[in-house]
Specification:
Helix content is 18%, strand content 18%.
Length: 146
């Protein structure tokens, strides 16, 4: 699927962007989510991105037409000794990536509200949208019926 994800070391506007993927952003490797040191998190992200044909690294520029991770489907961050994530459709708060989200909607909202709001880094200065594999853009064509 086209679930995009961005990866950061640190938090907030000063976090270091490590890269992004254009697909399957909700299916992130367990070693990224389970990392307990920044060094292990960085290595897990590096290995993960190197294994993908839809990955974008910082040297390639920001791959999305939007200016920050607030519009990206998911973003992953490492700080305070653990991996955190923010999911665009449900919240803009850092939630521990290892946490089990409550299924009840009211409980979920209460759980999310306990966590700090995300401040997103502005990436517009390094934007480099290609609309290729790394963009997650799907192009469909149709032929006229014979």
């Amino acid at each position: 699927m086209g679930t995009r994800a961005d990866f950061y070391a640190g938090k907030g506007k000063d976090a270091e962007w490590l890269g992004s993927i254009a697909r399957d952003g909700d299916e992130i490797a367990g070693d990224i989510r389970a990392a307990e040191t920044e060094k292990n998190y960085r290595k897990a992200v590096e290995v993960f991105l190197a294994s993908r044909d839809d990955a974008t690294l910082p040297a390639q520029g920001w791959p999305w037409p939007w200016n920050d991770s607030a519009t990206t489907d998911r973003s992953y961050w490492f700080f305070d000794g653990q991996c955190w994530e923010a999911i665009r459709h449900t919240h803009k708060h850092y939630v521990p990536a290892k946490a089990k989200m409550p299924e009840d909607e009211a409980e979920q909202e209460a759980f999310i509200a306990k966590h700090e709001r995300v401040e997103f880094r502005d990436m517009s200065a390094i934007k480099s949208v290609t609309f290729g594999k790394r963009s997650g853009t799907h192009v469909f064509t149709a032929k006229a019926a014979p």
